Amino acid sequence: MKNILYKSNERPYLSSKKHKGVAVCPECKLVFTGGKWKRTEVPEEYTEVLCPACRRIKDKYFGGILYLKSELLKTKKSEILNLVKNREEMAQISNPLRRIGAIEEKQDDEIVIYTTFEHLATSLGKAIKRAYKGELTIQYKENEKAVRVYWEK
Ligand SMILES: [Zn+2]
After folding, report:
1. Whole-structure pTM value
2. CA distances, 76 to each of 73, 79, 129, 132 (Å)
3. How close is the Cα of 31 to the center of ligand 1, in Å?
């Protein structure tokens, strides 16, 4: 019997356990070994498996969405985006699957940043608030796949 509640699209992102041997992501060259995706030397023998971060980016199935809305973006956009990129690099040290998947510049004063997993969107939002003040709102909704983080100033 089919379980109609089963969300087939959730599975691929959670099932990293099923790769027994060593896998390498063909996109970003992360190596799956010892139960984790790591930034390490690519071994001689491996199977190619898209890592959860690249899979999410490819499917546009993001875990976090960060909305930035501020007049500050008109004058400090590159400074703010630099901060965002630095935070992303720091996050990757502890977990290389935490990544920015897309950045959309909606208006002069509005940018949307999509992250592979929710943690990065919230930590980016907090870093921006620490640096530039303003209001930060974090919304987790039970039925939504992504956390939504709003920064306004
Ligand atoms: Zn990858």
Report:
1. 0.85
2. 5, 5, 14, 10
3. 9
